[in-house]
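I can't quite decide. Please look over this sequence plus structure tokens:

:::
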Amino acid sequence: MNREEIKTFLPHREPMLLLDEADMDREGNALGRYTVRGDEWFLRGHFEGNPVVPGVILCEIIAQTAGVLLREDLPGKTTLYAGMDGVRFRRMVRPGDTVEVTCRITRRKANVYVIAGEASVAGAPCASGVFTLML
């Protein structure tokens, strides 16, 4: 899916839409991809002369990728964070990097989903954790 297709189920819009592409794999995992251009609002001042994507933005990229898993339930609803557990950051993400994300549902109860997500750049993990999302 491209950005326009992603907008059919995610409510995010620029500058907060942080997925360029998304899909599902054969195992039922959501896959997402975002290339950091360098002109994003969150890089201004983080850090001057040494831009690094904030960890919270990496978590948002993971959560938006998780939206692919929830897209059948999303129309007319908003996905909100209910919690984050075991979040780890392993490497810096900089302009020019392409963040690739894999997410899977580990539990669901009513409108609460627990998602395991991992983000990587060039095959090297940069962020991971367990994210609780609520519709």
User: Anything to note?
Assistant: Residues 55-70 form the longest helix (16 residues). The CA atoms of residues 15 and 41 lie 8 Å apart.
